[in-house]
Amino acid sequence: MPDENKTRAQLLSEVHDLRQRLEQAEQTTSRQMAVDRVRAEALAMRSFDDLRHVAASLFREIRSLRGAVFGCNLAVIDKRAERIHDYAAKRSPRLKGIGWTSPDLVEMDGDIAIGYREYDPSHPNYATYLSQWGRGEVWTIDSRTDDWDRPRGFAEDFDLSQVDEDYFPPELEIIIVPFEHGSVSLHTTGGRDDVVDLVRDFAEAVHLGYVRFLDFRRVTEGQRLQIEEYERELTRAHDLQMGLMPQRAPRIPGYDFAGSCTPARQVGGDMYRAYILPDGRLVGFLADATGHAMEAMIPLMIFAGILEDHVAGSERITQIFGSLNRSLCRALPKQTFVCLSMGILDPEKRTLTVSNSGCPYPYHYSAASGCLDEIALDGYPLGVSNSATYFEKVVDLAPGDRAVFCSDGLVEAANSQGEAFGFDRLQGTIQVGCDRGLTTAGLHRHIVRTVLTFQDDRTQEDDMTIIVVGVRRKR
């Protein structure tokens, strides 16, 4: 019988031990899962405001493991800005039917309120906190001492006696566990021995997420600085490109000129220019370099740098195209080229001599007949082939006539359905404007507005450049 009783006692003891081990295992698992949830929240941080979510998660998880938790603080040190960001989590006062007056108190998930304070070097708590934190040791604050801050988020004259002891216990201990970039504090009662290790686990989880946030911020800041520098470069390039265009229209008695270039991006590959030669003739042209944005800017700048010398050194427009082509074949990178459409106006002879290399055909409107005709000229883009040949056409002008030069950006402009504006619409638009008797500037505005209206809200995909030359009617 004694042996039987002994065996039963042993069994009961083993069952008891097993229950304890299971409870410990369950507690360990629950604790690890709670820490993991806080770590996940911390790893998701993308701004300091996200610390509110981390503080709420800390309070919720620690309170689920240890009931006597009345508040939780998460403080992080922003050394670069010389700031301490301190987030305090507590059960929402609304659960007790109590409102608050501070705009800094934010309710999270309906049951947790987050208060926020920021300390800079001018605040007395700044140096005190850094001194304690710098020791790397756990420290405590007793709510019965003067070191304890008033619960944040309530009016200065709020009577704390309105809140029961379950919300603000009279004997509250704040246990502060530091980590590399700040600290986690727990407001509790009943001693610190069983709390420090628990808080330290959560502090390490927060530390991991905060370090990742700092890395994310460094990368983001680096990217922001790179983007800002790129934007500055684009602005300089845009100003440089716009500087290639005429600041004002050239003036020749009896004739009008209008032109514009609208890059699809901040920088484009189109340009136009018009200027008067020493012999009184007007040179007007538009150029379209290969590619888009900065890619097209390089061949465009090379072209602009050599253009005027070739114009001044050539008597015929085909000579200008030939010499430009040979120079660009040598100067441009492979598989880059420039399309050019040019007209030379002789005001005495009232003629317009035109040549073209890869641009859409220019148009001539005859006021006498009311007809709009293409000035059909084909030629390789400049810089493609050393042996390319170029041709010219001489157009006789009369009062009321118009000549229109367009880059392919107008023809290829597409609407939200992907339908291109096209040559037919372009020709029809010019015809309508001329039939209405629009001035040179008015015809220019009419064409541009019609294309932009057709595009509606669709993003412009290519540069749009247009030149209009008009002969004034006799009064």
Can you describe what's shown?
This protein has helices spanning 2-43, 51-65, 124-134, 196-243, 293-312, 317-331, 408-411, 422-435, 440-455; strands at residues 69-78, 83-91, 106-108, 112-119, 139-142, 173-179, 182-188, 255-262, 270-276, 282-289, 338-346, 351-357, 363-365, 372-374, 392-396, 402-406, 464-471. By secondary structure, the chain is α+β, with helices and mostly antiparallel strands. The protein folds into two domains: 23-219, GAF domain (Beta-Lactamase, 2-Layer Sandwich), CATH 3.30.450; 244-471, PPM-type phosphatase domain (Phosphatase 2c, domain 1). β1 and β2 form a beta hairpin. α5 packs across α6 (317-331). The radius of gyration is 39 Å and the shape is rod-shaped. The N and C termini lie far apart (138 Å).
Shape: rod-shaped
Helical residue percent band: 25-40%
**Biggest β-sheet, characterized?**
7 strands, antiparallel
- Our count of domains comes out at 2
Tally of contiguous helical segments: 9
Average pLDDT value?
85
Distance between the termini: 138 Å
The ordered H/E elements are HHEEEEHEEEHEEEHHEEEEEEHHHE
**Can you tell me the CATH topology of the largest domain?**
Phosphatase 2c, domain 1
Write out the strand line-up for the largest beta sheet, numbering strands in chain order: 3-4-2-1-7-6-5
Query: How much of the sequence is in beta strands?
Result: 15-25%
Low-pLDDT residue intervals, each spanning 5 or more residues? 150-158
* CATH homology-level superfamily of the largest domain: PPM-type phosphatase domain
Secondary structural class: alpha+beta
Quaternary organisation of the protein chains: single chain
The name of the CATH architecture of the largest domain is 4-Layer Sandwich
Radius of gyration: 39 Å
